[in-house]
Write a structure and sequence with these properties.
By secondary structure, the protein is an alpha/beta fold. It is 31% helix and 19% strand. The strands form 5 sheets. The protein has a 5-stranded parallel beta sheet with strand order 4-3-2-5-6. Strands 16-15-14-17-18 form a 5-stranded parallel beta sheet, covered by helices on one side. Helix 6 links the parallel strand 8 and strand 9. Helix 2 packs across helix 5, helix 6 packs parallel to helix 7 and helix 11 crosses helix 13. The chain is globular and about 55 Å long.
């Protein structure tokens, strides 16, 4: 019997295969390099019937003249080549692709390592470099070595103040940053039925932080309902009896709030062990935790109070921003003293909109805390939304209260 990756790619682990790509996308950073490579291949024009997308999210709006010029060229290319195009302010590429675009069983390639996020829909989603993306634009295909799979079995339900981000940090801490190199993580078990699509996106998102090629959740009734609301009729994927190269078991009731300390995602500690550590900034957002459910949870905690440190909140998409406005969530966040940024990646990659100064400390809901990532000399601690909200109110790392 086959793993989900083997079923989608149509071959056993270890085989090399060429496959048609169902959806491919790049952003304003990798798109510039992909366009250069595409031109060097002698290409002139894409088909007018493609499932290719260019989505501006990394440096939006442009932070200087050079960036603006590069974006102008890429924007013209997208519009002239019949690509699906999302300009500044539309949102993070992975989030936009999750809003009713990616479907179970598809092969999805993004020119960004966190394209693994979309495995939450039961798709085989992975990231590639710019040259590989250019070749996909040219041929519509790419090659794979079918990965071995790691079975991550989930039971129970969350208790206390723990959430999906804490589970993700738990499994990354257990595997290590290279513990699943070129393997596919498969999240399965009775506990998955307690996790929403938003929570599954978090689990898949961090799979690359353990070195994984992909992180997949089987499409079930939760997936079916989500996609039905967005106009798609899909069927659940039923797990088969299969062999995994390694297996991990997690009971959600055992998960506690965690923090990943600088400068490794797999170096995790309970929040209570770091309680009282002063922070200079809190950042809530990114392709990990910038969804509506995240911002609503943050707002519930800070409503009627004031944050003690500068706090930047950035919705992952324009759709999410609009919903926070309609429901009053945005007003609660602003009234608590937070700053709202343009939907997109924000300061996650360290170009603008909240980079750190020398010696400053940020508590972030993002997925990476590498040295100098958000500013030379700054330190990044990674946490859940609940931990970030509690800490923003106190100005120091704080154990979140049970909701």
């Amino acid at each position: 019997m086959s793993t989900l990756s083997e079923r989608i790619l149509g071959a056993p682990a270890g085989d090399y295969v060429d496959r048609k790509v169902d959806r491919a996308y790049a952003h304003d950073g990798t798109g510039v390099l992909a366009l250069e490579a595409w031109k060097s291949m002698g290409a002139e024009r894409l088909s007018d019937k493609t499932e290719f997308s260019l989505l501006f999210d990394h440096i939006v709006p442009a932070n200087n003249g050079t960036t603006a010029t590069l974006q102008h060229e890429l924007r013209d290319f997208a519009k002239s080549s019949f690509m699906h195009f999302a300009d500044i302010g539309c949102g993070i590429c992975h989030q936009l692709m999750s809003e009713g675009i990616v479907l179970p069983g598809e092969i999805v390639i993004g020119a960004d390592s966190h394209s693994v996020t979309l495995g939450a829909f039961g798709a085989f989603a992975t990231g590639v470099g710019a040259t590989d993306m250019a070749a996909i634009w040219l041929t519509g295909e790419t090659w794979f070595r079918v990965p071995e799979s790691v079975g991550i079995h989930i039971t129970g339900s969350f208790s206390g103040a723990a959430e999906a981000k804490d589970l993700a940090l738990t499994y990354v801490g257990k595997l290590g940053t290279d513990g699943a190199s070129y393997q596919a993580l498969e999240f399965l078990g009775d506990g998955m039925r307690h996790l929403s699509v938003d929570e599954r996106l978090v689990l898949s998102n961090l799979s690359v932080e353990a070195g994984a090629k992909a992180g997949l959740c089987y499409a079930d009734e939760t997936t079916v309902r989500y996609l039905k609301e967005r106009g798609h009729a899909v069927k659940p994927q039923i797990p088969e009896q299969c062999s995994y190269v390694q297996e991990l078991d997690f009971d959600l009731s055992d998960i506690v709030p965690l923090v990943a300390v600088p400068h490794r995602v797999d170096t995790v500690k309970p929040v209570q062990d770091l309680a009282g550590l002063p922070i200079d900034q809190v950042f809530v957002g990114t392709c990990t935790n910038g969804r509506y459910s995240d911002l609503a949870r943050f707002a519930r905690i800070v409503k009627g109070k004031k944050v003690a440190v500068r706090t930047i909140v950035i919705p992952a998409s324009a759709e999410i921003l609009g919903k926070t406005i309609r429901t009053g969530v945005l007003a609660d966040i602003i009234e608590a003293g937070c700053t709202i940024g343009t939907p997109g990646c924000g300061p996650c990659i360290g170009y603008h909109m909240g980079v750190l100064g020398e010696g400053e400390v940020c508590l972030s809901t993002a997925n990476r805390n590498f040295k100098n990532r958000m500013g030379v000399g700054g330190e990044i601690y990674l946490s859940s939304v609940a931990t970030a909200a509690a800490s923003a109110l106190e100005g120091e790392i704080t154990v979140p209260e049970v909701a």
